[in-house]
Design goal:
heterodimer; A: 308 residues; mainly alpha; 13 helices; B: 514 residues; alpha+beta; eleven-stranded mixed beta sheet; four-stranded antiparallel beta sheet; 19 strands; 33% helix
């Protein structure tokens, strides 16, 4: 069963990546600052004895190896341990992870819904006015910093025309602005990719054969060309997911979205080791999992890969 | 191993997707006749237990939920709180507090001497050791219950700032039975106090919802609830304020001051705050070891121009590392006048060649100071000193650059003790061996600082603290820049909001018009 071997290989890879990432993060963050000092940074009467007491209470006087293995044990048991300042890490993540996933998926949906029809249209009408406009708009989109676009959308839809909430996550309308912001930014790249891939497949011989058979233009484009172009598009979307998660950190800040990005930034600022290790590990696992999913989706799109 | 991680990942994903759908379905249900005050502040205190935090962001929540034995309101005067009075006994080694009768906690538990004793046993004991507040109250040896409404504080050593410190943060009175019942972790998330508002729900990184305490002993809150949202990004907090999403915004950033001033629906409310910004000198080595050079740098910079141009006038000039509201401020001390010619002469006298390079370190996340630093560089350039400004990440800056004395000739220092007592700042700036004082070792300063800590006599203390300020001024130990105002953005529909200088905003007397 080659597919099973492939899966196991990928899972082992995922575990290795996660171990490497957490080990590196856990080690590096300890070099940059002492949580006991951060905690008391605004106190005027702290003695070295006070700091030692705090370090001991937080378990910072134990060896790095011991601290790291405690963390790994916590992860494996599904209990993510205690944050230094704010209670159970699992509860914090249970709150943040769904909203990050929701935003990531919503932005991907916005981007797919925009880029696939636009990309196809541009490819089919290559060189026409519509194609030119789409290409110029996509270049403009590529040049925007995402936070700037976010702030402009807030200015327009929350302040000038107050129809949408400016920030937070209190109702379904809250997701419209952040998802559109990231969706538009992603579309700028994706529309170019869809266009190029479609141009390539449309000029291939099997499309010519399909046309020669007298199939309708619709069948040619959607059944034959798009399906063949889809493989590279899906690969690219999978790779994009990693960038998307990185970009979300900024967008979450701009829209005050209560997600994993906000949580990790707070953890870094406070040198909250357990919380930071957990958020980074989960983000790493997510990216690895998406890449794995992309590999599996190939089989669905292209039967030739399934057989091989 | 791979099998378990796969399983838990799958389970986690399903659960998160379910949760996401659930979250989507929740729509705000505040459409009744209830009036809710919406507030935005920058930071999430991350923990609502009074002894677990040191953040100002806790103060603007905690001051509505908790009370101490002593009360200090927006006028900064000390007044009876949960104690109706106090007296010093046994040669000032014992402070006796008479407690207010008929007060109950939000859970119905009575407030009495046992609650006071429990509060301080907890703060000074094992639970307190895990948090940052304990170190402020170690002058207390023990709290003894005399009768149900009288307690004695036995003192380990004199602590002249103790009465002030009993009005905030770590000294907030907590309910013994409730904590024993629900446990410490639950108390972090949903604490109970005696104040005018009760914590209804706290969602980390999102908000805290307070509801009116109908059983409050000292009057009634005017709104039914307060929704305090945490919005870290300045531009987003401003967008919520300007779009009417929130009624009051705390921590107005300096660059947004004009936007708030120009808006018809929002007022800018400013009050002198506790935070002073200075740059300190490396007095141990380099050209700034020479007091003449330090004085020359101080004279070369026009702080009034900086206040007007960069801070929109929302700061006051200072002569020492304290504002005018601070206990220990000497009103007769005036800041060094702007005198570039005098500065040049002093530098020449000290043998400093024009074009000499010096550097200024600061914490890079402080955007306002970044601008100020560039202006300082321009002023120093005019007297022939070339200033290099070096930003650092905040934690690295405090833990390493300052603590280990790795700064250049100048380094930024911003500090605000909510006690408004110069002891708070002066001790850690000038006492030998303090962690924010890498360079100064001076027996005269040490003696003055120790003297004012050993007595409750306010006249002796004020004199000693003014002497410290005068000494620092005469030898130009620091370059005092300005005292920042505490800024609030308040919607015109809000009435009765009194700005708190110390960021400990209270919402009891606030009303919102629809």
């Amino acid at each position: 069963m080659p597919i099973l071997r492939f899966l196991i290989q990928r899972l082992l890879q995922a575990v290795l990546v996660t171990i490497a990432v957490t080990l590196f993060v856990a080690f590096a963050i300890r070099l940059t600052g002492d949580p006991a000092i951060m905690m008391t940074a605004q106190s005027s009467s702290v003695t070295e004895a006070d700091l030692d007491r705090i370090r001991e209470a937080l378990g910072l006087n134990q060896s790095f190896i011991k601290q790291y293995f405690d963390f790994v044990r916590n992860i494996l048991s599904g209990d993510l341990g205690e944050s230094f300042f704010r209670g159970s890490v699992r509860d914090l993540i249970a709150l943040a992870l769904p909203s990050t996933l929701l935003l990531a998926v919503a932005s991907m949906v916005v981007s797919i819904a925009l880029s696939i029809p636009l990309g196809i249209y541009a490819a089919v009408h290559k060189g026409g006015a519509a194609d030119q406009i789409i290409r110029v708009l996509s270049l403009v989109g590529l040049s925007f910093p995402n936070f700037w676009l976010g702030i402009m959308l807030v200015l327009m839809f929350s302040i000038t025309f107050p129809i949408l909430p400016a920030s937070g996550f209190s109702s379904w309308q809250s997701i419209l602005l952040p998802a559109t912001t990231i969706g538009i930014i992603l579309t700028a790249t994706n529309v170019r990719l869809v266009r190029t891939q479609m141009l390539e497949t449309l000029s291939s011989q099997y499309v010519m054969v399909a046309r020669a058979k007298g199939l309708s233009e619709k069948t040619v484009i959607y059944k034959h060309a798009l399906r063949n172009a889809a493989i590279s598009i899906v690969t690219f979307l999978g790779l994009q997911f990693g960038n998307l998660i990185g970009g979300l950190v900024i967008i979450e800040l701009v829209f005050n979205w209560p997600g994993m990005g906000t949580l990790s930034i707070e953890a870094i600022a406070q040198r909250d080791y357990p919380l930071l290790q957990a958020t980074v590990s989960i983000l790493a696992i997510m990216i690895v999992a998406v890449n794995l999913a992309v590999d599996l989706v190939y089989g669905l799109i292209d039967p030739r890969i399934r057989v091989a | 191993m791979s099998f378990t991680s796969k399983l838990s990942l799958k389970k986690g994903l399903t659960r998160s997707l379910l949760l996401a759908t659930a979250l989507c379905a929740v729509t705000p249900a505040v459409s009744f006749a209830e009036t809710i005050l919406n507030v935005a502040q920058r930071d999430d205190p991350q923990n609502l237990d009074p002894i677990d935090t040191f953040r100002l962001s806790w103060g603007s929540i905690g001051s509505n939920v908790f009370e101490g034995l002593v009360f200090r309101g927006e006028d900064l005067e000390l007044a009876p709180g949960l104690a109706t009075g106090w007296e010093f006994l046994d040669d000032e080694t014992r402070i006796r507090f008479t407690l207010r009768e008929g007060v109950t906690f939000h859970n119905g538990e009575p407030f009495n001497a046992d609650a006071v004793k429990y509060t301080f046993d907890r703060l000074l004991g094992e639970q307190g050791e895990q948090g940052p507040q304990r170190s402020n109250y170690t002058s207390i040896k023990e709290v003894v219950v005399v009768d149900p409404f009288t307690v004695d504080f036995l003192m380990e050593r004199p602590d002249p700032v103790l009465i002030t410190k009993l009005a905030g943060y770590g000294a907030m009175i907590v309910p013994p039975k409730y904590i024993e019942e629900v446990g410490e972790e639950a108390f972090d998330m949903k604490p109970v106090g005696t104040g005018p508002f009760m914590v209804d729900a706290y969602t980390p990184t999102v908000n805290v919802e307070l509801t009116k305490n109908d059983a409050y002993w000292n009057g009634d809150a005017q709104v039914d609830g307060v929704n305090i949202r945490f919005i870290a990004e300045d531009a987003t907090r401003m967008a919520e304020l300007l779009s009417g999403g929130v009624d009051i915004a705390l921590n107005i950033p300096t660059p947004s001051v004009d936007t708030v001033r120009e808006s018809d629906r929002v007022d800018l409310v400013a009050v002198d705050g506790p935070t002073v910004v200075i740059t300190r000198f490396n007095t141990a080595k380099g050209i700034t070891a020479d007091p003449r050079v330090r004085k020359a740098i101080t004279m070369a910079i026009d702080t009034n121009a900086i206040i007007e141009a960069i801070l929109g006038g929302l700061a006051s000039p200072i002569s020492s590392a304290q504002g005018t509201k601070s206990f220990g401020n000497d009103a007769t001390l005036t800041p060094y006048a702007y005198d570039p010619e005098g500065a040049k002469a002093l530098l020449k006298e000290a043998g400093i060649a024009p074009g000499t390079e010096i550097s200024l370190d600061f914490s890079g996340n402080d955007d306002t100071f970044r601008e100020v630093a560039q202006v300082i560089a321009a002023y120093l350039d005019m007297v022939g000193l070339k200033l290099n400004v070096t930003p650092h990440e905040r934690s690295v800056y405090t833990n390493d650059i300052i603590a280990n004395g790795k700064t250049g000739e100048m380094y930024h220092f911003g500090w605000g003790g909510w006690t408004f007592d110069f002891d708070n700042t002066a001790y850690l700036l000038y006492r030998s061996g303090e962690r924010f004082n890498p360079y100064i070792e001076d027996s005269e300063l040490d003696a003055l600082l120790d003297k004012q800590r050993a007595t409750y006599d306010t006249d002796v203390r004020r004199q000693a603290l003014q002497d410290v300020a005068g000494y620092a001024y005469d030898t130009a130990l620091d370059l005092p820049l300005y005292n920042l105002s505490t800024l609030y953005g308040v919607s015109t529909s809000v009435k009765g909001f009194v700005p708190a200088p110390d960021d400990r905003a209270r919402y009891m007397s606030v009303t919102v018009e629809e």
